[in-house]
Write a structure and sequence with these properties.
The complex is a heterotrimer of chains A (258), B (310) and C (293). Chain A is built from 10 helices and 10 strands. Chain A is of the alpha/beta class and 258 residues long. Chain A has a domain of 177 residues: Rossmann fold (3-Layer(aba) Sandwich). Chain B folds into 2 domains: 54 residues; 227 residues, MetI-like (MetI-like fold, Orthogonal Bundle). Classes of the chains: A alpha/beta (258), B mainly alpha (310), C mainly alpha (293). Chains in contact: A-B, A-C, B-C. Bound molecules: adenosine-5'-diphosphate (ADP) and magnesium ion.
């Protein structure tokens, strides 16, 4: 599988500040296309921050600054000429807590289609997205009811369907299962594996087993004394979990520190 | 406490009994203070009803509510008690005010909650509060001596007292109410919903109009209702600028009279207690009270629905 | 991916233009309100400043605009405010303490609470009607200062109660627990701990409510009617007039001169209002920095 590894995202010398506080320091990372890449590390090490650099969500936070390059499809995302809304329609995101809109199930999935001027048949696209998110069978008879009526796990799959509807090349997931029960978590993990051949997935997780189960590659981040996050080690998940190069990685994975 | 047996026990006991009595008394007094507000409502209802019922013994409720001629101060053959002209005047002004205040207030709220950086927000909000704090006689002065003459340059047929300028200025006056209540509703929309929309490639305007405003809709509608209820009850501005000619018209260029302005007009003349004239203002006041009450209750329920959502 | 690009036509340029247009609309709404306020203030200043003089502040109204003064209205306003405050403050604090510290959670408390928030939405002129019927006629107080202040007190009571409740709620529970731990009764806790620490907040609410009351003309006009007073009220049972009514009176007269002194009266009223708000803001800021320490 690693013969003709195509690169989906190439991070070069990335630095992120919140005001005067540097959250990420000198990150370099090549994310492979149509693979699942997991970001792991202790809480507060900047995993979410890094993830939000990939679709320029950080600039919605007042005071946040990004330096360095994030190369995607041959352009630097942070070029002045790049329209962040275009980036976000090509790189989708799923959040830690399910956050459906206070609208119907159908409207939730159709939102991104409308916003991006979808020309095809919306009904079909909604069905297709719900099927890809393994939710169709459960909701096909009540597309008009409020998304809040769904269970937590269903809501999160709805959010995945909503992201998939725009047909993104990459989907970013920030601890997508951390608010869910074990069964719903398994459903999400299965879903991630099913999607992988078609889309690149970058997933933040604090759950080691989950990273081992779902990801092809794993990046391990830590915090320096100044509380800035930095990349310790990055490689195929099997190697990181069985034969890490860095002692810190091993210590973290075996649970010797959190 | 009772372990402290070396204190003179008799003294302690009477002290404690007195304290308990004091405690009860104080609680009673505070309860009465809280009761005053309930008594106020009962007082309002009681006095309005009392005089209004006496009025309706002379004038049938039906002819009061459906009559199209309001001339209670004329002598008998020309005297008429149809309240519709006053209601129409009130609604005409309220409509003009709504046409200004609802769009401007909502746009201001969107600007403050979705666009303005914190520093700008902190500058603009106090200015709007000043706008809300200006006495209504001052707005009346402004409408009569500035807005009307300005409008007359464009609309020569505009009368000195007219519903248009009173309504426009009233709109300006209630903008802060619309904007601050709507902004509260929009700020209550969780950040995560905005992020979800941005992450789908939505622009700021799409996020504002397609996610935030719909999610805050009941709060915004409640803001509209409460602001309109305020406009219906507003008194001095319309008394000064809109005129004293009860008229059943939809034309804002004309001089009209609102329900509130009629009450003031009669009050100015020191109406004699017990006269029919005196009773008319209670009948009109009762109708006004009911109208605003219905709107406030409506607003309350709309807000309640919105609160349940998150 | 080819198909993707055909199916989605985000029309980014058009969207950008829409965004800019709407931004301009939102911004102009804000500018419109601020411009309205500025125009109003400037208009009042232009009309009124030439009429402001020591003579204006120290004389009674007159049929001749150039001789007219605002003394009766100003003193009337001051007296009315003092009386109103004296009536409102104890009632409001008592009600607030009851609701925050003593009230049981039952239907009657709920009724009181709903009632208070509803009263805030009753048009002020309706309070005027209550005042004429209840205080002027039934209690036979006549069109007096006392009747006026009782009416205004009822009008601002809900506002002051709400502000006082917030101030009381802001007192940390640890203070109360510390006092209870010393064996204090509920009333001792309220008197010794809750009231002193919430007083600045309550005071702020009182001042803000008074600044609303000072500008109110409708309910007061119903009580006092449009009197022409050439004396300062000497007792609570005397007749009276206040600034907004005097201003209303001058606005209603024909002639540019009366318009000028109306504007001068407005300036006096606005200056009083601004100073009251400044005091309230000062109190609030001091209070806030204190409690953060
Ligand atoms: N909006 C923000 N403003 C300021 N600091 C932030 C913000 N978001 C995150 N941080 C800080 O940046 C660091 C990394 O945060 P985050 O990316 O959320 O970590 P993780 O997802 O790995 O737990 C933390 O120290 C956090 O306190
Ligand atoms: Mg995180």
């Amino acid at each position: 599988m690693a013969e003709v590894a195509e690169i989906a995202i190439n991070v070069k010398n990335l630095n992120v500040w919140y005001g005067s506080f540097q959250a990420l320091k000198d990150i370099n990372l090549e994310v492979e296309k149509n693979q699942v890449t997991a970001l792991i590390g202790p809480s507060g090490c900047g995993k979410s921050t890094l993830l939000r650099c990939f679709n320029r969500m950080n600039e919605l936070i007042p005071g946040a600054r990004v330096g360095g390059q994030v190369m995607f499809a041959g352009t630097n995302l942070y070029d002045a000429s790049v329209d962040p809304t275009e980036i976000r329609s090509r790189i989708g995101m799923v959040f830690q807590k399910p956050n459906p809109f206070p609208k119907s199930i159908y409207q939730n999935v159709a939102f991104g289609l409308k916003v991006n001027g979808y020309q095809g048949n919306v009904d079909e696209a909604v069905e297709r997205s719900l099927r890809r998110a393994a939710l169709w069978e459960e909701v096909k008879d009540r597309l008009g009811t409020s998304a809040f009526k769904l269970s937590g796990g269903q809501q999160q799959r709805l959010c995945i369907a909503r992201a998939l509807a725009v047909e993104p090349e990459i989907v970013l997931m920030d601890e997508p299962a951390s608010a869910l029960d074990p069964i719903a978590t398994l459903a999400i993990e299965d879903l991630i594996r099913e999607l992988a051949p078609e889309v690149t997935i970058i997933i933040v997780t604090h759950n080691m087993q989950q990273a081992a189960r779902v990801s092809d590659y794993t990046a391990f981040l830590m915090v320096s004394e100044e509380r800035s996050g930095y990349l310790v080690e990055y490689g195929p998940t099997s190697q990181i979990f069985t034969n890490p190069k860095e002692e810190r990685t091993e210590a973290y994975i075996t649970g010797r520190f959190s | 406490m009772s372990i402290a047996s070396n204190t003179p026990s008799a003294f302690r006991r009477t002290g404690r009994r007195r304290a308990a009595f004091q405690e009860k008394l104080v609680k009673r007094i505070f309860f009465l203070c809280a009761l005053v507000s309930v008594l106020t409502t009962l007082g309002i209802l009681g006095t309005l009803l009392n005089e209004a019922i006496k009025f309706f013994l002379d004038v049938p409720v039906w002819s009061f509510l459906t009559g199209t001629q309001w001339s209670p101060l004329f002598s008998p053959p020309y005297q008429s008690f149809g309240v519709l002209p006053l209601v129409a005047g009130t609604l005409l002004i309220t409509t003009v005010a709504a046409a200004v205040a609802l769009p401007v207030g909502l746009a201001t709220a969107i600007f403050l909650s979705e666009y303005a950086p914190e520093r700008v927000r902190k500058t603009i909000k106090p200015i709007l509060e000043v706008l809300a704090g200006i006495p209504t006689v001052v707005y009346g002065f402004f409408a009569l001596t500035f807005v009307t003459p300005m409008l007359q340059k464009v609309l020569p047929e505009l009368l000195v007292f007219n519903a248009l300028s009173a309504g426009l200025v009233m709109g300006l006056m209630i903008v802060p109410m619309v904007s601050s209540l709507s902004e509260d509703a929009m700020l209550a929309v969780p950040r995560s919903l905005r992020e979800a929309a941005y992450a789908l490639g939505a622009t700021r305007i799409q996020v504002s109009l397609r996610v935030v405003v719909p999610a805050a809709l009941s709060g915004i509608v409640a803001a509209f209702i409460l602001a309109l209820s305020r406009a219906i009850g507003e008194t001095m501005l319309v008394t000064i600028a809109a005129g004293a000619t009860p008229k059943l018209t939809l034309n804002p260029m004309e001089s009209i009279q609102t329900m509130t302005a009629y009450i003031v007009q009669v009050s100015l003349g020191e109406a004699v207690h017990g006269s029919l004239e005196f009773r008319t203002i209670f009948a009109v006041g009762f109708l006004l009270f009911i109208m605003t009450l219905v709107m406030n209750v409506l607003g309350y329920f709309v807000v309640r629905r919105w609160r349940e959502k998150y | 991916m080819k198909q993707h690009e055909q199916l989605f036509t985000p029309r980014r340029t058009a969207r950008k233009i829409t965004g800019v247009v709407f931004y301009a609309l939102f911004l102009s709404a804000v500018v419109l309100s601020i411009a309205g306020l500025l125009t109003l203030v400037i208009q009042v200043l232009i009309e009124g400043v030439p009429w402001l003089s020591w003579h204006f502040l120290t004389n009674y109204p007159s049929r001749h605009a150039e001789e007219a003064g605002i003394l009766a209205a100003m003193t009337g306003t001051v007296y009315l405010m003092v009386l109103t405050a004296a009536l409102t403050i104890p009632l409001a604090i008592g009600a607030a303490i009851y609701l925050e510290e003593f009230a049981p959670k039952n239907w009657f408390t709920t009724i009181i609470e709903i009632n208070i928030s509803n009263l805030a939405g009753v048009p002020s002129i309706v309070y005027g009607l209550l005042g004429i019927a209840l205080f002027v006629s039934w209690m036979n107080l006549g069109r007096s200062l006392l009747a006026g202040s009782m009416t205004l007190a009822l009008l601002i009571l809900p506002i002051v109660i709400l502000a006082s409740r917030e101030a009381i709620r802001a007192v940390p529970d640890t203070y109360r627990q510390a006092a209870y731990a010393l064996g204090a009764t509920q009333w001792q806790v309220v008197r010794g701990v809750v009231l002193p620490s919430s007083l600045p907040g309550i005071l702020t609410g009182v001042i803000l409510a008074m600044s609303r009351a000072i500008g109110e003309a409708a309910p007061v006009i119903a009580i006092s009617a449009l009197v022409y007073l050439t004396f300062v009220p000497g007792s609570p049972l005397d007749r009276f007039t206040v600034l907004p009514i005097q201003i209303f009176n001058w606005i209603s007269r024909p002639g540019d001169d009366f318009r000028g002194i109306a504007a001068a009266g407005i300036i006096v009223l606005l200056v009083i209002l601004l100073s009251m708000n400044a005091v309230a803001i000062y109190l609030r800021n001091r209070f806030q920095t204190r409690s953060e320490e």
